[in-house]
Specification:
This protein has 15 helices and 13 strands. The protein has 375 residues and is α/β, with parallel strands linked by helices. The strands form two sheets. Strands 3-2-1-4-5-6-7 form a seven-stranded parallel beta sheet, sandwiched between helices. A six-stranded parallel beta sheet has the order 10-9-8-11-12-13, with helices on both faces.
Length: 375
């Protein structure tokens, strides 16, 4: 099977977000299959003097096929006009053009498969849905998403939640939407054998860890409330947050001495920070999947997640599901994790068993199976 995979290279640069991890891992898994010949499809302007992608891209050693125009204006033209056609830049004999992220690809010579990780743009009941930024986001996506759903032979997504929202909000055909999920990088499994007290800690006190920055979408207001209630309860538990935080929340966090903002953390350090923690506290209000929850389980710590969007589906009964609007209840659970060894060990064991089923190779197998089914 010959596959041309269109990617946004910048999104794959390390350290990257969950979508970037998905792109890197699934494309690498596909490229390792003996029955598959895969090339990347990218703008020529993204190649360096060595005719390869940037050294921060884990996919840079894969063969590339290029188109001559800049990525951003070209993709905007594809989305708005369906032009220029990509066919002449796709090698003869290609069986599938595959995008592991959201886009519209005007291709006639072979079937197309794209990936929609979520359709947050079309949600109208989120706390930020009426902001001008979200309305602009919805307008831009509205110009092309429905066409992509119609014209792509297969639409991949990462959770049943995202699939059902596509059907409910956009009238998508559920028969062509395939849930492939996400996997967990091996270092998160490997760190689980390391005794936590042998690892360096970012703070002196016991802490819960959060990945994704202090932002509204990631439950920033809930974290501030939890921090306040922890202090009121005279708990020594701190909240340590990795990732880019919004300026307003950075300022607000200064009033909470039990919140530590680390900023962007390297991929090498994330497993260590998780393993050293009491557990993950993930109060995001909207996720198409929520990889950090599974990464915590793989690393051998409990995952406490919000009862929002895909998160209950992703963790199942192996995670602790909370209402982000009830900080006192959340604090009760955090204090129990600190003081009740049996309770904590129970969720560690459940989480590790649950995480073991979530591998990138399994995701790639589902992609291949869909290609064979829809060919």
């Amino acid at each position: 099977m010959q596959i041309s995979s269109y990617i946004h290279p910048v999104r794959t640069y390390l350290p990257c977000t969950g979508v970037g991890r998905h792109i890197n891992a699934v494309v690498q898994e596909l490229s390792c299959q003996k029955t598959i010949s895969l090339n990347l499809l990218v703008s020529k302007q993204l190649l360096g003097a060595d005719q390869k992608l940037d050294h921060r891209c884990p996919l840079r050693d894969l063969p590339t096929q290029t188109f001559p125009t800049p990525e951003n204006p070209t993709e905007r033209s594809w989305k708005l006009l369906g032009l220029p056609k990509l066919d002449r830049h796709i090698p003869d004999g290609t069986d599938w053009v595959y995008a592991p992220m959201e886009t519209y690809l005007p291709v006639s010579k072979c079937p197309v498969a794209i990936t929609l990780h979520d359709i947050q743009a079309f949600e109208s009941q989120l706390p930020w849905s009426q902001s001008w930024q979200h309305r602009w986001f919805r307008y831009k996506w509205g110009r092309w998403v429905r066409r992509s759903l119609n014209d792509s032979r297969v639409v991949f997504t990462v959770s049943e939640f995202s699939k059902q929202r596509m059907v409910a909000l956009l009238g998508a055909d559920p028969r062509k939407i395939v849930v492939i999920g996400n996997g967990i990088d091996q270092p998160f499994f490997d760190i689980a054998t390391t005794p936590p007290d042998t690892l360096p800690s970012p703070v002196e006190a016991p802490y819960v860890f959060m990945i994704g920055g202090l932002r509204k979408k990631k439950g920033g207001d809930s974290f501030l409330e939890v921090a306040k209630h922890l202090r009121q309860r005279k708990s020594d538990i701190h909240i340590v947050i990795a990732g880019r935080s919004d300026p307003d929340y950075i300022e607000a966090a200064k009033d909470h001495p039990n919140i530590t903002l680390l900023g962007v953390v390297s991929d090498e350090d994330l497993p260590l920070l998780l393993r050293r923690s009491l557990g993950l506290l993930f109060l995001s209000l909207y996720e198409g999947f929520g990889i950090p929850a599974l990464e915590a389980m793989a690393a051998g710590v409990p995952a406490v997640v919000a009862n929002r969007a895909s998160l209950p589906e992703v963790v199942g009964d192996a995670g602790i599901i909370v209402d982000p609007d009830k900080p006192d209840n959340i604090v009760d659970i955090l204090i129990t994790l600190e003081n009740n060894t049996r309770f904590r060990q129970d969720y560690i064991q459940r989480g590790q068993q649950h995480a073991a089923a979530h591998t990138w190779s399994a995701c790639a197998d589902r992609v291949i199976e869909a290609f064979q089914t829809f060919a």
